[in-house]
Amino acid sequence: MNPFDQARSLATPEARECIDLVEAFFKTLEAMDFEATGRFFTEDGAYCDEPAREMDAIGPAGVTEKLVKSIVGLDAFVMGVDTVVGDARRVTTRRTEEWHFSTGEVAKLPVLCMHEIEAGKIKRWHEFWNMPSLMAQMPQSWLEARAREAS
Fold first, then answer.
1. Which residues contact 23 (CB under 8 A, 6 or more apart)?
2. Does the model's pTM come out above 0.85?
């Protein structure tokens, strides 16, 4: 049974709605449809990247912009969710992201995540991950392209 189905089987009806929202959110993010991903957020919703809080984003447009800048130049972005726990206001997940680069490399990043839900939208998205672990796996060509874009 997939982890979202398992969580739904143990959840209240209100919690199932939150779990459904987060599952749809991850499918949209995995498809790299960043504009649609941003629309999951409330107007003041926040994406809190815990190891890089200076890069937090607010609102649908801010989240879209952050995702475009962060997950650019990939052939695929795979969300391997293996654990989901939810209630009527929060959904916590554990996953391993796979960043597939056009050069053939694949970076794998374990992520613990919590979504806070308000009125059917994401109010806060907290991501907990290890920056040195991710950066050590990044192809040099990808890092150089990000540096050029930043200057």
1. 4, 84
2. yes
